[in-house]
Design goal:
By secondary structure, the protein is mainly β. It is built from no helices and 26 strands. The strands form five sheets. It has a nine-stranded antiparallel β-sheet, with no helix packed on it. The protein has a five-stranded antiparallel β-sheet with strand order 1-23-22-21-20, with no helix packed on it.
């Protein structure tokens, strides 16, 4: 059964799928409903809500901290932030460069938000697109090509990255960790891609052995349910993983995925949909479809990140170069937009541990150059 068989509804039903929201917080990115509209673009084309400002923290081909050493990588892509013991944090960023020129770079900040170091945590891989942070403090970097693998990386750079072949060999896009159910969810960037679950054998954080499963869909009482079926050959020695199980559902170009309150939100780029999978009752539904939405401002869906308040932020690959929030009550609103960088895409959105800052990159900037055009930004609230 194809994913197109699932019942759709326009954006506005996210509240039914977002879970409970905890108490209010004063952090500016905790919940986005009251942030307000975008202001006019500045001289560099960046549009932000009133009270927010930005700075450029890295450019591809340059040393981010202005010192000899690591040169910020070309084609920055998926990213995440990790706290450090001294009260600072590290922002990690994939490199989507091809032909073993990819990997992962890291940018370290002290407790005052000053850049203090930049370094590589993964080298000599290819097309590292998105990935996912783990609760035990590592970064899973996904290779987006037919024989792609997932690498587990140390954001602090103290240990060497390790490939995790048990997670399957396919065109990986992103991954989300479900600690409650001791499993991972993975997306595949193929027009007929699968939606996967990796069930650990020894429990998390052990990713060395487990069962890779692919989603099949069924209908019950008007709801779509996911049935997880084992993938016979996760290493795809002869047949691609997505074609090994005839009953598996097709998801049209899986991209970013993130977990919040027991719900996995992920996107598919070829039909511009945002999906919500309930990990407890195994229901799945579409919470945004550009073709049926009353407010179709989101297109080119790509990376995903979620605020503690349950707002789902989706970055655009092309589209209008926006980062768009689907709020917990179903409203759509742009959080930022870049004018004049139409040959680029917004990638790697991630919040610092305090939710005071948001990081992201324009992968190819205004030049459209994969190797040298990337720009990495920090957004903060200045009042």
């Amino acid at each position: 059964m194809g994913a197109s068989g699932i019942g759709l509804f326009a954006a506005g039903g996210l509240a039914n799928c977002s879970g409970d929201v905890s108490a209010n917080s004063s952090a500016p990115f905790y919940k986005l409903k009251d942030i307000g509209p975008l202001q006019a673009p500045d001289e560099h084309g960046l549009m932000l809500p009133a009270g927010f400002s930005y700075r450029i923290v890295a450019r591809s081909g340059e040393a981010p901290v202005g010192l000899p050493g690591y040169t910020w990588h070309g084609s920055p892509d998926g990213g995440a932030c990790f706290p450090t013991e001294d009260g600072g944090w590290v922002y990690v960023s994939n490199s989507e460069m091809r032909s073993n020129a990819g990997g992962v770079g890291a940018l370290r900040f002290n407790a005052q938000g000053e850049k203090v170091a930049a370094y590589s945590i993964l080298k000599n891989t290819s097309i590292n697109c998105a990935g996912g942070a783990t609760p035990w403090g590592t970064w899973l970097s996904c290779e987006e090509f037919t024989r792609g693998q997932v690498y587990e990386c140390d954001p602090m750079g103290n240990t060497t990255a390790v490939v995790r072949p048990a997670l399957g060999t396919f065109r990986h896009e992103a991954v989300a960790v479900d600690s409650s159910n001791q499993c991972l969810y993975l997306t595949e960037d193929e027009p007929d891609g699968g939606f996967y679950r990796f069930a650990t054998t020894n429990g998390l954080p052990d990713l060395t052995v487990g069962r890779l499963e692919i989603a099949a869909l069924s209908e019950r009482d008007g709801q779509s349910l996911v049935n997880w079926l084992p993938v016979p050959d996760p290493l795809a020695s002869q047949i691609p993983t997505r074609r090994q199980v005839l009953e598996s559902a097709q998801f049209r170009g899986g991209e970013g995925i993130a977990l919040h309150a027991g719900k996995a939100f992920f996107v598919t780029k070829h039909d511009n949909r945002v999906w919500c999978y309930d990990t407890e009752n195994q229901h799945i539904e579409v919470v945004y479809d550009v073709s049926s939405s009353d407010n179709p401002i989101l297109s080119g869906v790509d990376n995903v990140v979620i605020t503690p308040g349950g707002d789902v932020l989706v970055a655009e690959d092309g589209g209008d170069m926006q980062l768009v929030a689907i709020t917990a009550d179903g409203e759509l609103m742009p959080l930022l937009q870049i004018i004049g960088q139409q040959r680029s895409e917004i990638v790697g959105p991630a919040f610092d541990p305090s939710y005071q800052r948001l990081y992201f990159s324009s992968q190819r900037g205004s030049t459209g150059n994969r190797r040298t055009g990337g720009i990495t930004y920090e957004i903060s609230y200045t009042g």
